[in-house]
Amino acid sequence: MPLLRYRARIAQAANEPNYWLLGIALGLVVLHWQLCWRLTGDFNQISLELMGWSGVVYCVWQRRQTIVLSSDLPSRILGGALVALLLVRSSYLKSASVAVLSVNSLAIALAIVLVAVGVKHLLHYQRELWLVAIAAFPVGELINYVDRVTHFSVITAQYSHILMWYMGFPVQRQGVQLLLPTGTVEIYPGCSGLEAALLSLKIAAIFLLVFPTHWRDKVLVPGVAIASALVVNGFRIVLLTYLVSVKNMTAFEFWHSGAGSQVFSLISMSVFSHYCQQLMPSELAPELAEQPLQGAVATSRGQK
């Protein structure tokens, strides 16, 4: 009898379009991540996309009782064609950058929305689409441009110079160079902590989209994201400069481009994540947490 019950439940689930749609979405996302890992090996990008899709799942789950699959035939055809295009493109793609592959993630989300609710209700799921777009956005392609605009490398050099001066090092600064009597370190955009700051900003944007916050938090959260990356990376620059001054190049390579370089990124991300975690229970009022659900109910009733 239990076996027959399970078989009946499986048969019932197989006839539900929700489960088919969930299976298609999960398969496309996993295929996209596998393609990203095989062609780029960018673990940071895959982790952030996982975070973005987790936010999508959370947002959809919050209003699961009010979602109605009401797509029309043209929208389903368009979404199906987009899925077919993604599958064909993925099978023939032999090499690609993160910027090229990031388009796939947004195309998957768009195809799912088209098949589920159609073009008419596309704007009702703009928050989920924004989550996917922000998570997939390739920040690595913009580091040099952002550095030219913000002079982040110079700011990092100034901050590291102050740290070393207070620690008693006989250090001087010339632009982005830190000079000690026995060695010199030049801070390039890739070592300035800018990438960590941009990644933290992406996490901040995902956090602000998923969880309702007060207006002051919309300013504080991005600020803390940038500050945590800058402060932690400043200590990394101090360590690298010291290692150069004592001619310990093995340790320098480890902390500069080896596994040690990820330790400081992990610390800055942990500090920022801890801040967000502390913010959620203390700052999110119950009435704010109910607002998105009320809006979703009103929207769904309007659709019906």
Automatic annotation (TrEMBL):
Stretches that traverse the bilayer: 20-37, 73-92, 98-117, 129-146, 187-212, 219-242
Gene Ontology biological process terms from the UniProt entry: proteolysis
Classification via Pfam families: Exosortase_EpsH
NCBIfam families for the chain: cyanoexo_CrtA (TIGR03763), exo_archaeo (TIGR04178)
Name of this chain's protein: Cyanoexosortase A
Enzyme Commission number(s) from the entry: 3.4.22.-
Species in which this protein is naturally found: Myxacorys almedinensis A
GO annotations of cellular component type: plasma membrane
InterPro entries the record matches: Exo/Archaeosortase_dom, Exosortase, Exosortase_cyanobac
Topology of this chain in the membrane: Multi-pass membrane protein
Location(s), subcellular: Cell membrane
Keyword Cell membrane: yes
Protease listed as a keyword: yes
Keyword annotations of the record: Cell membrane, Hydrolase, Membrane, Protease, Transmembrane, Transmembrane helix
MF terms in GO: peptidase activity
